[in-house]
Write a structure and sequence with these properties.
Layout lengths: L1 H26 L3 E4 L12 H19 L6 E4 L4 E2 L1 H12 L5 H10 L3 E2 H13 L2
Length: about 130
Amino acid sequence: HFEEALRVNVVAPLALTQALLPRLRAGGGRVLHLGTSVAHAPQLGTATYGITKAAFHRLYQQLNAEQLGIPVGSLSPGLVDTEGVRDHVCKARRLDLPHVRFFDQAFEKGWTTDSQQLAEFVDELLAKP
């Protein structure tokens, strides 16, 4: 599971950035990193996700340090209501992990970001000159 998460959260974004870099430079493109607080604030039951997202955050920082000739930004949208988050909550509930209470409260009080709204915001953000 860890190696798969590392491939998804670190290796694939790096490979994609490297592959697209010539086109991004030529077309005035940019890279946007979508982060998570779990990368910086460990929670019980989130080791694989948190460690690989921390590495992803480090990748974003390194891309900026490399001065690639394109803007590289980062956005941490908070708790996004996705199928993956809901699946995680179900699994965490079965394991009786303590952070389930936070998720329950966040969903109940509307503290989550709608995934469609986030996608529209990112589209708008990336479309700006």
